[in-house]
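Sample A.
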Amino acid sequence: MQPYENRHPATQQLMRYFSWSHLPTHLQETSRACSQLAGHMVAVLPDGPELTAGLRKLLEAKDCFVRAALDAAATEQQAAREVDPSAPYGTGEEH
């Protein structure tokens, strides 16, 4: 059985956006925390407009948190380059 198979289609659709394993390692922890909260809310609350709205807002928040983690990583890389100019300029991954 697929996760959330018996849930409202809106719940199913939103939950698929909380996956995190495809992200670079340094972003996974941030995304996983939001995914775990979303899963908990779906486990304890009934389907309905408020759950859908809450999941949508949590998804927006997760996206913001992941972007903040990207910025933090970029700031750390910049600081490393200032200390060691031979430090690499990135991971080779486009985001």
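Sample B.
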Amino acid sequence: MADASTPLMRQYHAIKQQVPDALLFFRLGDFYELFYEDAVTAARELEITLTSRNKERGEPIPMCGVPYHAAESYLARLIQKGYRVAICDQVEEARFAKKLVRRELTRIVTPGTATEANLLRPHENHYLAAVLRKAGSAGLAWVDLSTGEFRATEGEAAEAQALLETLNAREILLPAGAPPLEGFRTELEEWVFAADHAESLLKAHFSLFSLEGCGLAGKPLAVGAA
């Protein structure tokens, strides 16, 4: 890949491989830079200048950037447009770096997991939903991380679909390979939705001995989605 031979771009590519489906904000001094298709997308959506690096080698790499001190406003605009954004920060001071400043992913923000006030639309719910379907039935769970509201249910697939549409979820979690749904979707490995695994997590999180009291006993699809 173009410019992959430089230490900086090798570092960039290694980090980008961790978040291939996110726009990567890569910290360079006082700016967060985006490269390649991320840059093309961000420049279009944020209405900022698209430029390039590596022109002198005849292999220009699209790039754009936003000031570090104003990054949250740009991040909010991308999240509200339905994009997943990963933040890569410098985790050591340049004066202490032996060669290349160490950088790491410090934050991944999606439309359904944003909780900061500046990333949310006021007076609206920001649901993160999960759907688990089997034959003609479906489990549906949804949470608003900004308020703590959490619910789960199970029923006919058509009923679950109708309820999902009323939620206007910002993000929908689905098992990998599941039939697609409209909206911003994130696929997770199938084992994440296994009822036994999900039940253990629910009991631990809510300090429960069983799921009888919350109405989820005997509802494996709802439990798996939750």
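B remarks: DSSP finds six helices and eleven strands in the chain. Residues 7-109 form a domain with the MutS, DNA mismatch repair protein, domain I fold (CATH 3.40.1170.10).
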